[in-house]
Amino acid sequence: MQSFYFDYNATTPIAAAVLEVYSEALRNGFGNASSIHFMGQAAKQALESARKQVARRIGCDPKELVFNSGGTESDNHAISGATRGVDRPHIITSSIEHPAVLNTVSRAVDVTIVPVSSDGLVDPDDVRRAIRPESRLISIMHVNNEIGSIQPIAEIARIAREHGVCMHSDGVQAAGRIDVDVKALGVDLYSISAHKMQGPKGVGALYVRKGYDLPPVFYGGRHEAGRRAGTENTPAIVAMGAAAELAAPDIAGLRDQLEQGILERVPQTRVNAASRHRAPNTTNICFEGIEGESMVIALDLRGFCVSSGSACSSGAVEPSHVLLALGMSKEQAKSSVRFSLGAGNTLEQVDRLIDAVEKSASHLRRLSPTYEAHV
Amino acid sequence: MQLWNQRRLPELQTEATTGRCCSLDDVYDARSVAQHLGMPFYVVNFEQRFEDQVVKPFISEYLSGRTPIPCTLCNNYVKFDHFLEMAEGIGAEEIATGHYARLDYNEETGRQELKRGVDPSKDQTYFLFGLTQQQLARTKFPLGGMNKSEVRALAQEYGLSVASKNDSQEICFVPNGDYAAFIDAYFREQRIEPTRTRGQITDVNGRVLGEHAGVHQFTVGQRKGLGIATGEPLYVIATQPATQTVVVGHNDELLRESCMAKDVNWISIERLVEPIRAEVKIRNKHVASPATIVPTADASCVQVRFDRPQRAVTPGQAAVFYQGDLVAGGGWID
């Protein structure tokens, strides 16, 4: 049975052009970029070309990029590095960060978690009020993976700068979806990941503003200008460079069609964190009276890949911390399904998905002992 | 189904806990088998429901002086209720489980009939007496017609990695069968002061023979752990949490001629209108004993009159009524 993919926020398929570059690099560009000989030099050149491509994409200087294993490592590096050497660093972050940020931040003793509105937006004044003399780092994600909300990073970064606090933003769900210009944003550190932008898994980068001295958290060779040890995964980095040259898919129209279609055809549905400040590809919908997990499985059996909660929480007991942070109840959070679109989706697929959602929802509700339809 | 986090109560951890039901190892095994057979595999988490419907009643039953059967509650309220509902929700017509039991549809009576599995040492019908007609109509027990050794042989033949896996034993959430330790650990985790149930051990006439450290550590018929030195063996006759007393007596004082069974569920018949004959099991490891089941004024309650007095009739256990291999029904011993 054919499967239609609507879970781009979990990961994206590698674009055909990227795959070509990747295979070629794997086959013939296998050299170690630190080697003196021809193979090494070729790898080094490919690596640096890719660096330029990625730098262009996010508006920075190539020297300001540290390649690594992906978004999680970038977040860990940023947070651990920025708070290194301080006895009790104070960190300010939001309630809807990805576990890669929250679980790293929680290792510090002194953390302020700034709330979000029901639209999933941080109020920059809340951040300002939380700043203290001991504050070392503010980490606020650019685009949220579950609801797609876009934070006012430029404004928050300005506040950080005013107070001399390091500003990090997890941009894993931003790059490749919306415009990213790290200089305009004014951040010190910014995380990106290739597999969310039609590149391969296992590779990403951390933007480190020139002049900001970030210590390494991996020790070994002096790779990446002494900032990240380990033989570079050149083929994957080259692929990431190719991915960086792809235009972000123009997907808002399809997303809106899907969203409207579901809201119209399925009663008792609501978009979570519906806001103008939302990534163009994401819609997170609450289906009252239905277990989100059952809906995801039912849709899977009908050939549609979607998710409830984030990809990192399969079989988890707790409802999504992001949805709870919006002020939703546990039941509402557990009744939500995330649809995230990308380059491979078509109008026909969207129409079929709406049909499938309508059928699954009505079947599940008919069986539910607690659901009562309001006529 | 993920029902219980095996690592939740760390003080109960032993090596054995990695091999227990719904541990990561078990999920891995199940996934491997599904992959081998080419079928989709989903893990659903029912931990909250399991805790509410099985674990908490388990504890409160013990504290009330009864010996509970969590497996039956799990069947009634999780496996054949919540799980079955979810399965239907995603479009399934039936569920299949590995219970050693058989199901037949009786054309004449129009009823689903539950029968013992052919392997007498593995028969699990004792735990399934609570299933309704609707639940049984949408269930399959593919293993009921085979001996365990045949099942393992088939698993081997199909190349399943679990063919020689150890049998799952005991209660899935109680390591080593030490339910007293489990209850203590759970209370500690919940920051509940354990109910003070220290008290006296008396004979059937109320004469004090000794002391005990917790009513819930005793079950009817138990001989060990009394700490009383006498000539003849003494057994627990009853536990009385209200007075925190454990009553002990001689073997013949353990015998009962009859008992009441409440919240009766009928399977092969719709209800009891007049007395019937049946062989009754009062424990899973009990040999079914001939009895007459007599209706009472309360339709949900029956009286079980044994042909021969039975030893250690235990409140909290079930009385399951068999007619040959057929499960007529069953109820909870009061």
Walk me through what this model shows.
- The complex is a heterodimer of chains A (375) and B (334).
- Chain A is α/β, with parallel strands linked by helices and 375 residues long.
- Chain A has 2 domains: 4-12 and 249-367, Aspartate Aminotransferase, domain 1 (Alpha-Beta Complex); 16-244, Type I PLP-dependent aspartate aminotransferase-like (Major domain) (Aspartate Aminotransferase, domain 2), CATH 3.40.640.
- Chain A is 38% helix and 14% strand.
- Chain A is built from 14 helices and 12 strands.
- In chain A, the strands form 3 sheets. A 7-stranded mixed beta sheet of chain A has the order 2-8-7-6-5-3-4, sandwiched between helices.
- Chain A is globular, with a radius of gyration of 21 Å.
- The mean pLDDT of chain A is 94.
- Chain B is 23% helix and 26% strand.
- Chain B contains 6 helices and 14 strands.
- In chain B, α2 (47-63) runs antiparallel to α3.
- Chain B folds into 3 domains: 1-92 and 165-186, HUPs (Rossmann fold, 3-Layer(aba) Sandwich); 196-249, SH3 type barrels, CATH 2.30.30.280; 256-333, Translation factors (Elongation Factor Tu (Ef-tu), domain 3, Beta Barrel), CATH 2.40.30.10.
- Chain B has helices spanning 24-37, 47-63, 70-89, 133-137, 148-157, 179-189; strands at residues 95-96, 101-106, 111-116, 139-140, 199-202, 208-212, 235-240, 245-249, 255-266, 276-281, 289-295, 301-311, 318-323, 326-333.
- At the A-B interface, α11 and α14 of A face α3 of B.
